[in-house]
Each structure stands twice: as structure tokens, then as C-alpha cells.
Specification:
Layout (H helix, E strand, L loop, with lengths): L1 E4 L6 E4 L2 E4 L2 E4 L4 H6 L8 E7 L4 E7 L7 E7 L1 E8 L10 E7 L5 E4 L3 E7 L3 E7 L8 E3 L21 H4 L4 H6 L4
Antiparallel strand pairs: 1-2, 2-10, 3-4, 5-12, 6-11, 6-13, 7-10, 7-12, 8-9, 8-11
Length: 182
């Protein structure tokens, strides 16, 4: 297993060891000991699984304290453009974002540290799996607009994205940061 750092402090791309032969493919998508050896010691307590049609944009979401949420994200079918935004005001990478293509072919995963927001754009019909280091709490659920100019995420859109009603109405990044709940 290999960890590659990104420009966002603590955020990394994880590449599993993949074993392939005439029968197919095998890899460990999660092994606590191996992840701890890579410096990821979160205890994951919830697994989420979403399916999306091509063109869906989900995000950009996070969970407020006292239950902030780290995530380990991978795409098990299709291809997504996965995004992480640093919301930690004391971080050297505050307000920076990264975008990583995750797919069933590359089998890469993104580790989203606490204090960062996450979203993805479905480049094809897809299934996304993510391990969460906190139980989802709707009273602590947060997010900001996917197209906020202050962050300037360069989504590789193929037309207008398909959004949920909630995602269409999310506030600006500065309104969220001004909330001081982070």
C-alpha cells in the first residue's frame, strides 16, 4: 500500500496493493494495521455507499464539531472527480482544494482529514464507497456551494451538473467559515 501526499495538509491518495491473475483482481480496500503504518489512525465507524448517474455533483459537505468526520473515499464502479477542500483556518493549505480522479480501474482512495470538506462529480455512472470516522449527525451536517468563487474548484463539467435541492441552496464558503462552529 502506498500513500502519496497532496497539497492539502494531511490529505493523501492511497494506492492499494493489487493482485491480478486469470481469475480476476484482489486487493485490501482497508486494513487497520496497514493504514496505521501509513499514518492514518482514525477509527472508522460508518460505511456509506452511493450510486450516481453521470453528471451528478455531490457536495461540498463536512460535519461540524463535536463530531467532525474524516473519510476514506473510493470509487468501486465508474469514474468520479473527487474533491477535498481545506477548511482549517490554522492550516497552511487553508482554502486550497485538490481534485483526484477515482475509478474502478485505478482503485485509488482519498483520505479526507477532519476539518476538510468533500464532494465529487460523477464523470460516468458510478458507485462511491466511503468510510467515515464519525457517525452521521443531521444536526451537524454542513456544506458550502459547489461553485463558490472564493474556492474556485475547476470541476470538469459536461454541462450543468445534477444537484440535490440541498446542494443547490448551500451557503458560500465565507458564510460557513464565519459561522465559527468549525
Amino acid at each position: 500500500m502506498k500513500r502519496t501526499e497532496t497539497q492539502i495538509q494531511g490529505c493523501a491518495v492511497i494506492e492499494p496493493d493489487v493482485f491480478q491473475d486469470h481469475r480476476g483482481v484482489f486487493f485490501e480496500s482497508y486494513n487497520q494495521e496497514k493504514f496505521q503504518a501509513l499514518g492514518i489512525s482514525d477509527v472508522f465507524v460508518q460505511d456509506n455507499h452511493s450510486t450516481s448517474v453521470s453528471g451528478v455533483l455531490r457536495g461540498v459537505h463536512f460535519q461540524y464539531p463535536p463530531k467532525p468526520m474524516a473519510k476514506l473515499v473510493r470509487c468501486s464502479r465508474g469514474v468520479v472527480f473527487d474533491v477535498v477542500v481545506d477548511m482549517r483556518e490554522n492550516s497552511a493549505s487553508f482554502k486550497q482544494w485538490i481534485g483526484v480522479e477515482l475509478s474502478q480501474e485505478n482503485r485509488q482512495m482519498v483520505y479526507v482529514p477532519v476539518g476538510c470538506a468533500h464532494g465529487f462529480y460523477a464523470l460516468t455512472e458510478c458507485e462511491v464507497l466511503y468510510k467515515c470516522a464519525a457517525i452521521f449527525d443531521s444536526t451537524l451536517d454542513g456544506g458550502f456551494a459547489w461553485n463558490d468563487p472564493e474556492i474556485g474548484i475547476a470541476w470538469p463539467l459536461a454541462g450543468q451538473p445534477i444537484l440535490s435541492d440541498r446542494d443547490r441552496q448551500l451557503p458560500s464558503f465565507s458564510d460557513v467559515i464565519g459561522n465559527r462552529r468549525l
